[in-house]
Amino acid sequence: MADELVFIKLGGSLITDKNKPETARLELIEALAGAIRRGLDERPEMRIVLGHGSGSFGHMAASQYNTREGVRTAEEWRGFQETWAAAHKLNQIVLERCQEAGLPVINFPPSAMVVTEKYRIRQWDVRPMQAALDQQLMPVIFGDVVFDSRVGGTILSTEDLFEHLSKILRPKRILLAGIEAGVWADYPRCSKILERIDGEHCEALDGQVLGSASVDVTGGMESKVRLMRRLVRHYPEMQVQIFSAVEPEMLYRAMLGEALGTTISV
Questions:
Q1: Whole-prediction pTM
Q2: Residue 169's domain spans which residues?
Q3: In which band, very low, low, confident or very high, does the pLDDT at 60 lie, cut at 50, 70 and 90?
Q4: Quick check: helix, strand or coil at residue 241?
C-alpha cells in the first residue's frame, strides 16, 4: 500500500493548561504519544509530521511583548528570546514523551529554519524533513518565533507552518486535536457542532467562529478555520478534521479514518 502522509497537531490548549503559566499536562501528552504509536502500529504505511502548539508556555510571554506583531526594540527582542525559550521548553517535554512511547521523532525547530517577510514564509528548506519522512522518521514542528526580514521577528502557529508545508509535501489529511469537540455553530453557547464545513456551509459560517477563550496570540479558532478553509480550496484532495483529543482514544480513531468533530473540505 502507498504511504499516506498525515499532519497531526496537538493543540496548546490540549497539552497545557493555558490559564497557568508553563503548565504541561504530562500524563495526557504521554497518553497522546501512546495513541499515535497505536495508530502507526495499525497503519504502518502512514507517515506523520507531528506539530504542537505552545499553550501556556509560549503564549504568555508572546502576549506580554506582542511578539506576533513584530520585534523592534531591545525590550521586544528580550520578549522574543523569552518566547523562544518557553516554546522550546514545552517542545522538549513533547519530544521526550514521544521518544518514550517509541515514536521515531526528529525535531525541526522553525526558529532555526524559517525566515518570513512581513509575516509570510519566504525561506524554508524542507529537504531534510522530506529525507526524514523517506526514512520513516517523524518530523516534529511547533509554534515558534521566527526572524522576519521586514518586521524583525514574529510568531508562526503550527497551522501557519502546516499551510506552507502542505504546498510541498501534500498531506492527505490534517488532524487538529484540541480540547473543543469541533467547531461550534453557536459559540459561546457551545451546544451544536458543525459536522462539516465545505462550499455549501462557508457563507453561513462567516462571523460565527470566534477566538479562543484563553490567551492565544495566534488567533484562536477563527484564524484556524479560515486558514484551513483556504488550504483545502487550494488542494481539494486534502481534508482537515478539528476534534477533541481530551480522550486520547479519539486521536487514535481519527488516525484510522473515523470522522470526528468538524471536517473541513471543498
A1: 0.91
A2: 4-56+88-114+121-148+157-264
A3: confident
A4: strand
